[in-house]
Specification:
The chain has helices at 2-8, 14-26, 31-50, 60-72, 81-93, 107-121, 127-143, 157-167, 173-193, 221-229, 236-250, 255-259, 297-303, 309-313, and strands spanning 145-146, 149-150, 266-267, 272-276, 282-286. It is mainly alpha-helical. Helix 4 crosses helix 7. It is elongated. The termini are far apart.
């Protein structure tokens, strides 16, 4: 292990890496985790040497600078201040870096923390969603770092467009849409905060993604007939499956809407089904075959066994329980 560490770390961090590895071992790091963390330290060591910086130069601004370049280089692990905390805490105990720098809060982290609070308190996002927004927008904020300070006041529409054009190519449509959505949200926040004078959210270009392009192809009539024929309507389970397929194919209901139906949602006289939509909003859905109760497979499902009305009522809500 000593040879491995010395071969990896030969720059400003070389005098400290063995002690830091012992510290991680004392904290219960596994061999695999320890090797991964040392690889991260080796990358930081090479970066410090290339920038002609020493260990004592690891201030909050320098840490943000390094992490921004690491993210820009395409690394997917050890990209945040959290990854730096074990090393900075260890160096802080040795007096190599100032104690207040052990958990640095640079301009990027400070702005993103204010943005996170805005998303949660003003926009009503959950903590997990807000964290996804911060991860998506962090490269843009980091790209505005100039000499340890954020240059946001001079932000222009060309800067916004240029970032989108450089960040989105090669990404999946969903990932690219998350970036532009988060960028618009951040620009609105910056305008509300007075950081930028011009509302630049409208300058964010849209991602080329055709609506409904990802939907599966509809079944052909013959395929649908074979699907209906697969239901054994002599049995109660087959009649239930047949009724569910009718609701899905003829009325275009979602699977969740069908699963939520109960007998109280069926108006046999009027021939109407009440479907609960998003936010528990009820919407009426006409179903003509229900005007003739004895000819309706849905009615057959509910009426063949009057002794088990309670069980039949839950048949459409919980199909697997029948």
């Amino acid at each position: 292990m000593v040879f491995l560490l010395r071969s990896f770390v030969r720059g400003p961090l070389e005098p400290y890496v063995l002690g830091f590895a012992d510290e991680l071992t004392r904290f219960g790091y596994t061999r695999c985790s320890l090797e991964q963390h040392v690889c991260f330290i080796a990358h930081l060591d090479r970066w410090l040497a290339a920038e002609q910086l020493g260990v004592g130069d690891l201030t909050a601004a320098v840490v943000e600078w390094y992490l921004g370049e690491r993210r820009a280089a395409g690394y997917v692990n050890y990209r945040s201040v959290k990854a730096m905390r074990p090393l900075l805490a260890y160096l802080g105990e040795l007096g190599v870096v100032a104690t207040e720098e052990a958990v640095p809060v640079g301009p990027v982290s400070a702005l993103l923390e204010r943005y996170r609070c805005y998303l949660i308190s003003e926009r009503g996002l959950t903590a997990d969603t807000a964290r996804c927004y911060l991860d998506a927008i962090r490269p843009f904020v980091t790209s505005r770092l100039r000499a340890g300070e954020l240059d946001l006041a001079g932000l222009t529409a060309a800067d916004v467009t240029g970032f989108v054009l450089s960040a989105c190519p090669g990404r999946a449509v969903g990932s690219a849409k998350l970036i532009v959505t988060t960028l618009r949200s951040l620009l609105r926040f910056l305008h509300i905060e007075g950081v930028i004078a011009t509302p630049l959210a409208t300058a964010v270009p849209s991602v080329a993604g055709w609506r409904l392009a990802g939907l599966p192809r509809a079944l052909e009539p013959e395929q649908l007939r074979r699907l209906f024929a697969s239901c054994d309507r002599r049995r109660r389970l087959g009649r239930r499956d047949y009724a569910i397929l009718l609701l899905l194919s003829r009325l275009g209901l979602r699977a969740g809407e069908v699963a939520a139906l109960g007998l109280d949602d069926l108006d046999w006289r009027v021939g109407e089904i009440t479907v609960v939509g998003k936010g528990n909003r009820a919407k009426g859905c006409r179903c003509r075959p229900m005007s003739a109760p004895r000819s309706s497979p849905i009615c057959d499902t509910a009426d063949r066994r009057p002794r088990r009305a309670a069980a039949c009522s839950s048949a459409l809500k919980h199909p697997t329980r029948c």
